[in-house]
Amino acid sequence: MNKLRAKKGYICDMDGVIYHGNRLLDGVKQFVEWLYKNDKQFLFLTNNSQKSPRELQQKLKCMGLDVDQSNFYTSAMATASFLSSQAPNTTAYVIGDSGLLTALHQAGIDFNDVNPEYVVIGETNNYNFGNICKATQLVNQGAKLIGTNSDVTGPAEHGIVPACKALIAPIEIATERKAYFVGKPNPLMMRAAMQSFHNKDIHSQDVAMIGDRMDTDIIAGIESGLDSILVLSGVSTLDTVKTYPYRPRLILQGVGDIAME
Hints:
Elements: H1 2-5, E1 9-13, E2 19-20, E3 23-24, H2 28-37, E4 41-46, H3 53-62, E5 72-74, H4 75-86, E6 91-95, H5 98-106, E7 110-111, E8 118-121, H6 129-140, E9 144-147, E10 153-156, E11 159-162, H7 164-175, E12 180-181, H8 187-194, E13 207-211, H9 214-223, E14 227-231, H10 238-242, E15 250-252, H11 256-259
């Protein structure tokens, strides 16, 4: 624990670590107070591309946690960063919600449904046969297929719902092209997130990755050289850990444990 508390930066998954649905988890307020008190850099990270940092900030504020917009990083932002680094001022046909559209627009990516360089897919409530057909047509014409993350399912208010990889699957099958996924567990997202820390002298060995999923959070932390910490406040149990060939360095009940010095 002393090694964990000595880190300069913390990247925390959100659902299952910070909240469940619209309920803040026990110990989170104390953990955030500890981060501010000890002048730590931190990011709340999510693979879901639907919401912008401002929307996520408002969600937490409604739960009683006030965190600045700059402390959020999403797979939409990582995707926008990736595309702009690959092809500055590029064009994209997008199936996604406000978080993805805003991130791409802010990165200088123009929307194009005629001859885009990329087709980008994220989570959305506006998914229909028409935009699947359009995306299929554009990929067949040569557009490169990008997914914001490789999650098959994700949590919602009333249970599990299809996530990005499930939404992109019909396009992959119809075009016989494989998408490139930017979000966790791709280390690309972790490196992009660390670049948004205010302190540019923070490197991988100075950062802890805290998450509740072995198949995204923990493997992403390990492959990025971060101190990988599993919390049992989300989907994973001690039995879950035994089924994977890799392990987190520490297993905690929740992030509140870190603040209990």
